[in-house]
Amino acid sequence: MDNFTFYSPTYFDFGRDTENHVGNLVKQFGGTKVLLHYGGGTIRKNGLYERVTASLLEAGVSFVELSGVKPNPRSGLVYEGIDLCRKEKVDFVLAVGGGSTIDSAKAIAAGTCYDGDFLDFYWGKAKIEQALPIGTVLTIAAAGSEGSPNSVITDEKTLIKKGTKSDLLRPRFSILNPALTCSLPPYQTAAGATDIMIHVCERYFSNTEEVEITDRLCEAILKTMIHEAPRVIKEPDNYEARANIMWAGMLAHNNVCGVGRVQDWASHHIEHELSALYDVTHGAGLAVITPLWMRHVAEVNPDKLILFAVRVWDIPLCEDDPNETIRKGIEAFEQFLRDLGMPSSFEEIGAKKEDIPLMVDKLFRAKETEGNFVKLSRDDVTRIYESAVK
């Protein structure tokens, strides 16, 4: 296990009706004037908007609003939010929604305190040294942004999707009420579950030795998702299954499973080009890319793929032909994703073979290789994309 530091200060308020605590939590963490940041009309239709705003007003916290967040959040709305925060002298950003809303809120929180272009943080030109405090009311279990230091934004000028990371972006508090996810469509629920699982896989597939504790944590979360995700597809109102998934989503990405080890992230970066170009649901894109990535890297680095098959999918080890074990493990994963309703090809997500060179060029514009478990070249990534064309 490698040396590491780990700082995870977020206060979690988990359970039914916890959104009614938001006003007092904002005050507890120093907020007096809030930017209320959310997506579209869903939180108004289901009454969450009224509950959140009533709690803020009851606590004596004023607020201004910025709606319009879309999946794969864009830079244009971030600029609008930064201008609004500065104009209204906002001192706290409250995201009500899923990972896209929270990522957008994080970008606004950092950009408000920075004299330059907030995208400097995402292009690696500047380090986040100050940010407004952030709180979240989570409505989708998927991205894990409610407990992570990460944010991903699409630059609208280039259609390149980039991420940044800072402990200053970890929310001061996150309200997690699993009941708020019960009305999600099955496809969105399945895409969220996929994203959670791949967040774990990005950490699990590592060449760092002697990381048994984090390996076992990764496997426990994956096994939980294997058990719970089909339950919520069949029983959308199953609160207990939703609760386990919501907490798994946070654990998958607050990095408790990733400390002390070199992580991969090739699947995410390869998928980001799909969601930036085609506005694909992130989890759906990952469902296409990740099993193909597994097949590709298994030829070079098979040992962890064997562990994945045996420990996560209960595939018996075939000592005479370990490749058979790997194949069955990947097939079990693919079948699980298909059973959830996830896609497995470019055709299903609207991606085009002729755009592969463009996506590869964008991915490798500032680097020579991708990923760490196996260092992928441009040709490797091209082959992974091409294997998605069926």
Order of adjacent strands in the largest pleated sheet? 1-8-5-4-2-3
Order of helices and strands: EHEHHEHEHHEEEEHHHHHHHHHH
The computed structural class is alpha/beta
Stretches where pLDDT is under 50 for at least 5 consecutive residues are none
Major β-sheet annotation: 6 strands, parallel
Measured distance between first and last alpha carbons: 40 Å
Specify the number of helices: 16
Strand content: 5-15%
Specify the overall morphology. Answer: globular
Helix content: 40-55%
Radius of gyration: 20 Å
Mean pLDDT: 97
Kindly state the number of beta strands.
8
Write the layout of secondary structure elements.
Elements: E1 11-14, H1 22-28, E2 33-38, H2 42-45, H3 48-58, E3 62-66, H4 75-88, E4 92-97, H5 99-112, H6 119-122, E5 134-138, E6 150-155, E7 160-165, E8 173-176, H7 186-204, H8 212-234, H9 239-253, H10 266-278, H11 282-298, H12 303-313, H13 322-340, H14 346-349, H15 356-363, H16 378-386
Parallel strand pairs: 1-8, 2-3, 2-4, 4-5, 5-8
Antiparallel strand pairs: 6-7
Helix pairs in contact: 1-3, 4-5, 7-8, 7-9, 7-11, 8-9, 8-12, 10-11, 10-15, 11-13, 11-16, 12-13, 15-16
What does this protein structure show overall?
With 390 residues, the protein is an alpha/beta fold. 49% of the residues lie in helices and 11% in strands. The chain has 16 helices and eight strands. The strands form two sheets. Strands 1-8-5-4-2-3 form a six-stranded parallel beta sheet, sandwiched between helices. A hairpin with a 4-residue loop joins strand 6 (150-155) and strand 7. Helix 4 (75-88) packs across helix 5 (99-112) and helix 11 (282-298) runs antiparallel to helix 13 (322-340). The longest helix has 23 residues, at 212-234. The radius of gyration is 20 Å and the shape is globular. The model has no long low-confidence stretch (mean pLDDT 97).
